[in-house]
Write a structure and sequence with these properties.
By secondary structure, this protein is mostly helical. Helices cover about 85% and strands about 0% of the residues. The protein is built from 14 helices and no strands. It is globular.
Amino acid sequence: MRTSVNLLFLFTFVFVFATQAQKQSDSLRLLYKNADSDSVRVHLLHKLYQQEDSVEHASKALELSKEINYKPGVALSLLDLGRWYYFAGREDVSLNYLIQSVKIAEQIGDKEVLKGAYRYIGFIYRPHEPYKAKEYYEKSLKLCQETEDELAASYIYSALGNIYEGINEGTSYTADASHKMALDYYLKSLKIREKKGSPSEIASSLNETARMYDQLGRYDKGMQLKLRGLQVAERIGDKNNIVFISNLLGNDFANRFQEYDKAIKYQMKAYELGRSVSNNYELLFDICKSVGTC
């Protein structure tokens, strides 16, 4: 009976969410149809791109912006295309669009576009050229501070933390020193997100900050943050994060604290939920192995 009720609630939630999203898209299309200028249409296409994650809207906005020689629209549309191709795994195409966006945005002094473009260029460079990525992150951070955009700054602090978390190999940084710097950036990000971020952003910051406490041997503090992260994930019904964090907690209780009863509790929670919502078989294998070990 409980399963049927839960499924009914889930289907109702999905239907309501989808209906609201469709209404927003329909409203934007109506505004687009009745807009009295092409520059307004460009910004409505940008909003449609955000609403529907559609590369077609971004491409149409770029085409229209070029037709009317509307440079703010060109810079914004190039950024949207750069974002879209980044998440599509086409980093070469993404970087080309982002560099074009930066060139125009710098000419017209568009700080809003530059904040995003610098950040995404940093994302692209980070795995292979972390110091070059750091330069772009710092450019973005400076603009965030100038425009008092704290939430955007939290993304940069997190990204800088990612760099220092992984750069100690082959550099003058010791692992301990780089992890302390990473922790400092993660704490700055967490402080902002706890004031202004969404629950998923807070959970993300809690997870990465806990990871650094673990790296520095401060396991009790790491445990506290993971437990808070689990509470946040449960409050918003984020099943994938519930599975992921429960698995981490189970491993911690087993391997670091030898509290096997608590470990079993979290591992079984991860197992029961994980097999129903996750097709990440590597994670499920790890959970099953941990349960057997406990």
